[in-house]
Design brief:
The complex is a heterodimer. By secondary structure, chain A is an alpha/beta fold. Chain A has helices spanning about 15-20, 40-45, 70-90, 110-120, 135-145, 175-185, 200-215, 235-245, 255-270, 285-295, 295-300, 315-325, 335-355, 360-365, and strands spanning about 55-65, 95-105, 130, 150-155, 165-170, 190-200, 220-230, 250-255, 280, 300-305, 370-375, 375-380, 385-390, 390-395, 400-405. In chain A, about 40% of the residues lie in helices and about 20% in strands. Chain B contains 11 helices and 2 strands. Chain B starts with 5 loop residues before the first helix and ends in a 12-residue tail after the last helix. Classes of the chains: A alpha/beta, B mainly alpha. The interface between A and B is large, with 42 and 52 residues.
Chain lengths: ~425, ~300
């Protein structure tokens, strides 16, 4: 389905010329007028001793590049570095070139906390792009609140959190779940659902919201709900149960290596997702995961996200081009990678709106920050530090990309503490 | 449990029985290699999962090779890559034994730490060479899909393949251990190392070969698991706990025990998975195993040794 093309290009900069430096995006508030550092003396824009000099500002990047989570977090690191390079090509932030210090959380939550402390206390970075799992975010949260750091968190997650020291760029649960369920009930005539997930907080919270929505708001039926330990690799039993209960929709939130096993076995068991019998709707499979699963194993499944690499708008075409130019042609870009890319841009916009790098001022300036040039389209920061964004449904193709089949007409309001879903 | 009709219950039994058999085959494949190494040599090989994943990566490379250069033979590449996986993992196993394990034979706790280090090193090597992301192994079309028996019962073909492979590997290991010179030597060393050396058995080389064969079997298992699971740097970790569970529960020194324990654990788990949730089934299975091991610490089948 064609996308609405209502995205503005940054005025005065042609895409080609910017692509040379790898940039095609800027804040609408501050079209690239190339702010000069001397107009913003360091003594005024940095009153709290942050790592900001007359020439450079140093931000932190904190992700796992080793360990289990490296598989997921690598894309985020790449997107953040791309955004930083592009911002530098456009003159930096308040006339200062961005530098970064990258730390490795090593898929270990205490390490995340320790590295966060190092970035905030020793390196004095004005902002950190980082974390991926909720567990790592929960581990660094007290550190960020204690030392008044500012974290840009990219992943869609279960909600139920709102910190003055975090900007949540991913969808909280209701943004990702409700529109997708409404869509499947409306267009596929679905009435019965089988909820399935890996056994930890995100799938459980998400399925809780899904169940409430299905039962109380749609007036339909959940015929099964089931969790498997992380890393589980044998799904034949649950596939048998699904076959017996004959749900209209399998709602799957399986993550990690289990994901691959689940879809391979589903296909091998003769459950054909291309014929939509039953419809499979997931919120845990992005283009990144399909690389491991294999496009032929998941063809026909629907995913509910806010971003797909195949989105056809100028922002996204430029973003995909720049990403591949920087990191290689075989790269794929999933929902979280795109969200991570927004981090440096949102921070730049907030710093320039505040006219200061100081965390308190950046925080005060953040609500209402908007990007017209995000690859996913237009986004805006809500008072609750989450993003207004659209919800989209895509259908998996054999080549590992999604065809976008639905998007909400308007931005969906983030609601991390949804009433009626607790 | 009571919401099903009689015919459905019949289908449940048939399908779950089959799911249990697939799980059984998976367990046997995982555990055989470890049973050889742990049972015959007493080495706790924490890197077992990584040797499996080496086999999976070999399969991945072969699938690319055949897909790119020999598309006509693609339908059969899987068997060839299983053999290659055996030799690749086996060769790595022999190298690790030579470089590391042989220096630590009388220090089981040190071997545990050393093989754990090997596991971490291998994970990072895979990550550097193949990338942190999981790789997609293309499976020949004829191996995907299922055979419909009735409208409720369908038999997945890859499950059948795993079962066939498990059977072949078990048979091979049995032949090797009980019908070959090497097997006789391994068993002799196990019974009395000094005496075996005195009658002229090259114990050093036999140990090395044993370790290599154990790792090679792990590699074949890894190759088979590309059909049903993921192939990534840390995927081996998904299997290691279950593997040790099966081997310890079966009685470390006994191959028959390994098979029996794989059968009982897999059937128990797959039946409970149907009537309870997946996590609960796992908890109950582990509780059951722990209880039995408390009553019978030597495992299901113990080999009697003169002490």
């Amino acid at each position: 389905m064609p996308q609405r093309k209502d995205f503005r290009r940054p005025s005065g900069v042609s895409r080609r010329s910017v692509l040379a430096g790898g940039a095609a995006l800027t804040s609408s508030l501050f079209a690239p007028g190339y702010l000069r550092a001397q107009d913003y003396p360091t003594s005024e824009v940095n009153t709290t001793g942050l790592a900001v000099t007359d020439e450079t500002a140093t931000v932190g990047i904190l992700h796992s590049v080793t360990g289990t989570m490296a598989i997921s977090e690598t894309g985020s690191v790449q997107a953040e570095k791309l955004a930083i390079a592009q911002i530098n090509a456009l003159g930096g932030v308040l006339g200062r070139q961005l530098d970064y210090i990258q730390e490795d959380g090593a898929s270990d939550w205490p390490t995340f906390a320790e590295k966060a402390r190092k970035l905030l206390v020793n390196d004095r970075v004005p902002s950190v792009m980082g974390c991926w799992t909720s567990a790592s975010r929960k581990a660094v949260l007290p550190v960020f609140e204690q030392y008044n750091g500012f974290l840009y968190y990219p992943t869609f997650y279960e909600g139920l959190e709102q910190s003055p020291n975090v900007i949540y760029m991913g969808q909280e649960a209701t943004q990702q779940i409700i529109a997708g369920l409404d869509w499947v009930a409306r267009t596929k005539g679905a009435e019965t659902y089988y909820l399935l997930g890996s056994d930890y907080i995100w799938p459980r919270t998400s399925n809780k919201i899904a169940r409430k929505h299905i039962e109380n708001f749609l007036g339909q039926k959940v015929v099964g709900e089931e969790y498997y330990p992380l890393g589980h690799t044998q799904f034949n039993s649950v596939i048998n149960k699904i076959r017996l209960r004959k749900p209209d929709v399998i709602y799957a939130i399986v993550v990690g290596g289990s994901n691959v096993a689940f879809y391979k076995q589903l296909k091998a068991a003769g459950i054909d997702m291309t014929s939509e019998d039953p419809v499979l709707l997931t919120i845990s499979v992005t283009e990144d995961e399909i690389r491991g699963i294999g496009g032929e194993n998941i063809e026909g499944a629907y995913a509910c996200m806010k971003y797909f690499q195949s989105l056809e708008n100028e922002n996204n075409l430029a973003f995909v081009d720049a990403f591949k130019a920087m990191w290689g042609d075989d790269m794929v870009i999933g929902d979280v990678t795109q969200a991570a890319y927004l981090g440096p841009w949102l921070w730049k916009a907030a710093v320039e709106k505040a006219g200061s790098f100081d965390v308190d001022k950046v925080r005060a300036a953040s609500p209402g920050i908007e990007l017209t040039t995000a690859p996913e389209g237009y986004v805006r920061v809500h008072e609750n530090h989450h993003l207004w964004s659209k919800t989209r449904v895509g259908r998996a193709r054999t080549d590992g990309q999604y065809d976008v089949v639905f998007e909400t007409a308007d931005l969906v309001e983030p609601d991390p503490f949804p009433a009626g879903y607790q | 449990m009571f919401a099903y009709s009689l015919s459905e219950l019949g289908a449940i039994l048939a399908m779950q029985g089959f799911a249990g058999l697939i799980l059984f085959s998976v367990f046997v494949l995982m555990a055989l290699g470890l049973a050889i190494i742990f049972g015959q040599m007493g080495v706790i090989n924490m890197a077992h999962g990584e040797f499996m994943i080496l086999g999976a990566y070999v399969t991945y490379l072969m699938s690319n090779l055949f897909g790119g250069f020999l598309p006509a033979l693609f339908g059969a590449y899987f068997f060839i890559s299983t053999v290659f996986a055996f030799f690749a993992s086996g060769a790595l196993g022999i190298f690790v034994e030579w470089a590391l394990i042989r220096h630590l034979y009388r220090r089981p706790l040190d071997t545990l730490l050393a093989t754990w280090a090997v596991s971490l090193i291998l994970q990072q090597v895979y990550r550097s060479v193949f990338g942190a992301r999981e790789v997609g192994v293309t499976i020949p079309d004829w191996m995907m899909g299922s055979l419909p028996v009735t409208d409720l019962i369908e038999v997945p073909i890859n499950g059948l393949c795993v079962m066939a492979l498990a059977l072949a590997v078990s048979l091979g290991v049995w032949l090797l251990l009980f019908r070959s010179t090497w097997g006789r030597q391994v068993r002799a060393i196990k019974q009395n190392r000094v005496m075996a050396a005195a009658v002229g058995i090259n114990t050093e080389w036999t140990d090395r070969l044993t370790f290599g064969i154990g790792c090679g079997v792990a590699g074949m298992a890894g190759s088979a698991f590309t059909m049903i699971g993921s192939t990534g740097p840390t995927a081996g970790q998904l299997y290691i706990v279950d593997t040790f569970l099966v081997v310890v529960f079966g009685g470390a020194a006994s191959l028959l025990g390994t098979v029996a324990s794989a059968l009982s654990i897999s059937q128990a788990q797959s039946i409970m998975e149907f009537f309870l949730s997946g996590s609960m089934a796992k908890v109950l299975t582990l509780l059951l195993v722990v209880t039995i091991l408390m009553l019978r610490p030597q495992g299901l089948f113990a080999v009697r040794l003169r002490k």
